[in-house]
Amino acid sequence: MTLTLRPDVRATDTDDGMVLLDEVTGRYWQLNRTAALVLRSLLDGGRPADTARVLRAAYPRLTAERAAADSASITGELLAARLVTNR
Q1: Buried-exposed string 5-31: b where 16+ CB fall within 10 A, e elsewhere
Q2: Are the CB atoms for 42 and 79 separated by under 8 Å?
Q3: Average pLDDT by consecutive 10-residue portion of the chain (87 residues)?
Q4: Residues 6 or more apart in contact with residue 22 via CB below 8 angstroms
Q5: Whole-model pTM?
Q6: To which H or E segment does residue 64 belong?
């Protein structure tokens, strides 16, 4: 699965993660550092297993199961909010 931001969604890095703006609806989403890390990994072509490894590297105390679950949850929420598309 390779995800891209929708063409009308803008991303800006912040000290605490990332902010996404849907220019069609005018809605903002604040992503914490973990969600921003997952999104960056996915946008760089990472698959769900890759994003889980990225999370474990950033947060060594995180179990493999929790990293996979968090990655899947964040990915699902981004897709449900229609901020990203699956290409």
Answers
A1: beeebebeeeeeebebbbeeeeeebeb
A2: no
A3: 90 97 96 96 90 94 95 94 90
A4: 6, 8, 9, 28, 29, 82, 83
A5: 0.90
A6: helix 64-80
Pairing of strands 84-86, 9-14: unpaired
Domains of the chain listed by start with CATH number: 3-82 (1.10.10)
**Cα-Cα-Cα-Cα dihedral sign, residues 74, 18, 28, 8:** negative
CA distances from 32 to 10, 13, 15, 17 (A): 16, 10, 9, 5
Whether the Cβ atoms of residue 30 and residue 39 lie closer than 8 Å to each other? no
The answer to whether residues 36 and 77 touch, using CB atoms and an 8 Å cutoff, is no
CA–CA dist 22, 83 (Å, integer) = 7
Question: How far is the C-alpha of 75 from the C-alpha of 2, rounded, in Å?
Answer: 11
